[in-house]
Specification:
Blueprint: H1 3-11, H2 14-32, H3 38-49, H4 54-71, H5 73-79, H6 91-99, H7 103-137, H8 141-157, H9 163-177, H10 203-222, H11 241-247, H12 249-263, H13 269-284, H14 296-312, H15 314-320, H16 326-337, H17 344-349, H18 351-379, H19 387-403, H20 409-427, H21 433-455, H22 467-497
Length: 498
């Protein structure tokens, strides 16, 4: 029996297929609840996988992760509360499409192009994983520094408000990221003697507060019920996607490729892939002024990128045993528990397992379409519930999600503080999304900057000496300079015309 046939035999068993279906439903449920991330879904599955063989155990995690990343778009579009951080980049567009009666088009785009991006990433995973992993391994602290700066720059330029307001939001996020003892100096910063703050500001309670609790506050203060969703106004979930595919083929391909490449970089993951893809989409769009106002182009490209990154993150994990993100870090631990050491030797010793994982990836992205359709249809009924009923339920899930991080009331307090902060920011037209990215990437920025400066003995020129770092650095600086150059050219053309 060939290795591929043996791999098909491992996957297409009633027990494994049942595990895949159950994990898909679980991933959809967790991803659709604001604050419960794909990483949390994976972590919750780990105790259950102890009782499984390697193939169903890995299949459960792969399927749940793919579903959770997509399902995070559902509350983002319907409630403006992204279920996962990967959905935060384009939540404004998705929500505004919902407000204008195009919810099914928005969620259909997220679903279809997430599946396309996931399948594209899986093809890359199957065919070119060794070569891409070698490129990712060449990254040092210099390349990671510029990658983080690029992500932070994108956060400012893609925010729907003005650049100064986006910068204010980013500074708030970066300041929150400096709290705690987890810094190169190892000294407590801004903890004020509080033991809970030594570990820093926890990301999940902060995200729940900024996105979900601020919305609850708004509903309580303004006492305005959400408008009903216009169901079926654009011809269903799938019908308009063929038109979007014909209109944005370059964006689909570019988002899938960028997402897979970023996912293959250790530590990057779907969050950064979505943000950078959205920024690239806006930068090269012919209708960039429509971004942030309910434009589907950003959803198409970023949706393909975040699920492409899920597949891409497995490239360094499988080939070199290096986790591409927090989810694959958990997966590597599960593989060790099963007696399988990820790395080059697993391709020689257990090739049928590798092929089985590839098959599961394809299967997970294909069944995402029918299950996603069911999830969208079911989730849409949430808005039929009045705000006075819906908001206490959301508040309850938020409190449970924040408390469950460390089984501590501190997470709930943190959530409420960031909820008030998010409410005040939005009341003053300051976007929230850059603050989230600053909170996530702040520690990585500081660590890679300090490490690079130590390596370079204090020389800033070292940040441009390595080819990839120089390319990333020049690209980032060009992004900074582009608005200035455009303003200069507009003024010059205006002067000539006058």
């Amino acid at each position: 029996m060939s290795i591929v046939a043996e791999a098909f035999g491992l996957v297409f068993q009633p027990y494994v297929l049942l595990v895949i279906f159950g994990s898909a439903c679980f991933g959809m449920f967790v991803g659709a609840i604001p604050g419960l991330t794909a990483t949390m879904a994976t972590a919750l599955l780990v105790p259950i996988t102890f009782f499984m063989e390697p193939v169903p155990a890995i299949a459960a995690i792969v399927t749940a992760t793919a579903m959770a990343i997509f399902a995070g778009d559902i509350p983002g579009a319907l409630l403006r509360m992204p279920g996962t951080p990967a959905s935060a980049a384009y939540v404004e567009d998705a929500y505004r499409m919902t407000r204008s009666g195009r919810s099914e088009e928005a969620l259909g785009a997220s679903l279809v192009f997430s599946a396309i991006g996931g399948i594209f990433g899986t093809i890359i995973l199957v065919t070119a994983s060794p070569a891409l992993a070698e490129v990712a391994l060449k990254f040092s602290s210099f390349e990671y520094f510029w990658l983080v700066v690029l992500g932070l720059s994108c956060a400012i330029f893609i925010s729907p408000g003005s650049v100064p307001r986006g910068l204010i939001s980013l500074v708030i996020g970066l300041f929150a990221a400096t709290v705690g003892i987890d810094n190169p100096a190892g000294e407590p910063r801004y903890t004020f003697g509080n033991v809970d703050l030594l570990g820093g500001v926890q990301f999940i309670p902060a995200m729940i507060g900024l996105f979900a609790i601020s919305e609850v506050f708004r509903a309580v203060v303004l006492r305005v019920d959400r408008p009903p969703i216009a169901r079926g106004g654009q011809g269903g979930i799938f019908r308009s996607q063929w038109q979007n595919l014909r209109r944005y083929p370059v964006q689909v391909l570019r988002g899938s490729a960028v997402g897979t490449a970023i996912g293959a970089l250790p530590g990057a993951g779907a969050d950064i892939a979505a943000w950078i893809s959205y920024a690239i989409s806006k930068r090269f769009s012919k209708q960039k002024e429509k971004f942030g106002t309910g434009h589907v182009e950003g959803l198409v490209e970023s949706g393909a990128a975040n699920n492409g990154a899920v597949s891409g993150a497995w490239i360094p994990a499988l080939v070199f045993g290096i986790p591409g993100d927090s989810i694959t870090a958990i997966v590597i631990g599960v593989l060790y528990i099963k007696g399988i050491n990820p790395g080059p030797m697993v391709f020689i010793n257990s090739p049928q397992l590798i092929y089985a994982i590839f098959i599961v990836f394809f299967l997970a992205n294909l069944i995402m379409l029918p299950l996603g359709w069911v999830a969208i249809k079911g989730a849409g009924t949430i808005l039929a519930i009045p705000s006075r009923v819906l908001m206490p339920i959301i508040l309850m899930f938020c409190i449970v999600g924040s408390f469950s991080i460390n089984n501590s009331i501190f997470g709930v307090i943190l959530m409420l503080i960031f909820g008030i902060l998010g409410f005040l920011m939005e009341e003053n037209d300051i976007p929230i999304a850059p603050a989230i990215l600053g909170l996530v990437l702040g520690p990585m920025l500081e660590q890679n900057f300090i490490t690079s400066m130590i390596k370079a003995d204090g020389s800033f020129l070292a940040f441009f000496e390595r080819p990839i770092a120089a390319g990333l650095g020049i690209f980032t600086i060009l992004i900074w300079c582009t608005p200035i150059l455009l303003a200069f050219l507009r003024r010059r053309n205006g002067g000539v015309a006058a």
